[in-house]
Design goal:
109 residues; Arc Repressor Mutant, subunit A; two-stranded antiparallel sheet; 56% helix
Length: 109
Amino acid sequence: MAFLSRIEEILLLTIWKLKDEAYGIVIRRQVEKDTGISWLSEAIYAPLSRLKDKGYVESLKADKSTEKGGRPRIYYRLTPSGLDRLISVQKINSTLWFGVPDLKKEHCK
């Protein structure tokens, strides 16, 4: 099994969280909210493209632009393979962290 990069994992989870509202700027804002890190748009689109190439997400162009003269939004959603991969990542993470105490509490002793 090939592992996902951390940003690919974050993006899959973000798309799952956003459901039908998962498009570029909203994805980036949610990633920033969840990670506490500012992200450039370019940092989001390259891994989204890789996830699409791997068959984990699909993109759908909106019927029309939301702004006069603007480009239509590109929405992303998980494919069944993407959901399976996300479930696998969750299981791996749970197994890796099982039995590890709260590190913040341990560090502050």
